[in-house]
Write a structure and sequence with these properties.
single chain, alpha/beta, Rossmann fold, 2 domains, 4-stranded parallel beta sheet, 10 helices, about 45% helix, binds zinc ion, ZnuA-like, Bact_metal-bind_prot9, Lipoprotein_PsaA-like, transport
Amino acid sequence: MRQILAVICLVLSSFVAAEPIKVVASFSILGNLVQEVGGDRVQVMTLVGPGEDAHVWQAKPADLKKLSGASLFFVNGLGFEGWLKRVEQAAAYKGKVITVTKGIKPLTLKEEGHHDHDGHDHGKTDPHAWHDPRAVLVMVDNISAALQAADPTGAEQYRKNAAAFKAKISQLDTQTAAAFAAIPGANRKVVTSHDALGYLGARYQIQLFPLQGISTEAEPSAKEMAALIREIRKSKIKAVFAENISNPKLIDQIARETSAKVGPPIYSDALDTKAPANTWIGMFTHNTQAILAALK
Ligand SMILES: [Zn+2]
């Protein structure tokens, strides 16, 4: 009898486990990372969707509803989600907020032309850490720890999923480092729309010439554009890239006025709705292959 009860309990618990836990990720790239670790135990809803720009995003009522029904809220942090507090309040979200970049040493940028009154300029934190695979390994660990705490029954599964995913990320990082190392350092220069690829540049020693700052909000002035065009000619930069989330108009202007070629759009802050760039692996592979092809 006891054995039969145990079997019934086991069957029942497997039904209970079949109901995935509901979590929200602030943007599409992070949504994929959470899904890779969570597997089928987790239902991931995303606020800023594929092709959307998190820097200037505004929540709709449907977004607030996603959040109010979730038990975990994964965010990038480092100032990426400027709307975070407003959205939490509007959704009356009382669950845990997991900042996945915890433990990552962030890059800081000097913003040119924004000098403080007392003479020193403040570095600005670059939030786009997901372009460095080594930072993504830390994010995956943070996601795995949060899911294990929220759903201890699935702990073993989350650990396994995270380990398998991390192995793929590390392998991709090793291959990518070797491919960039084969290109002479002086040629490793690219122009991008906004300053989103700092972590990729730091990881593989690529010099970046962004049109905009680390947010997409401000467009460069005519004077800044002219200075950048001079710089591209002088440094013989071969490749310019537009992004999936921003207007390609300025990048096209640069290509017309210099000998630089426009590469395929880079996925900077959002995934695509379709393959190949609908996962972090696909996005990273596309971006690095596009840059490598342009620099060869
Ligand atoms: Zn950005």
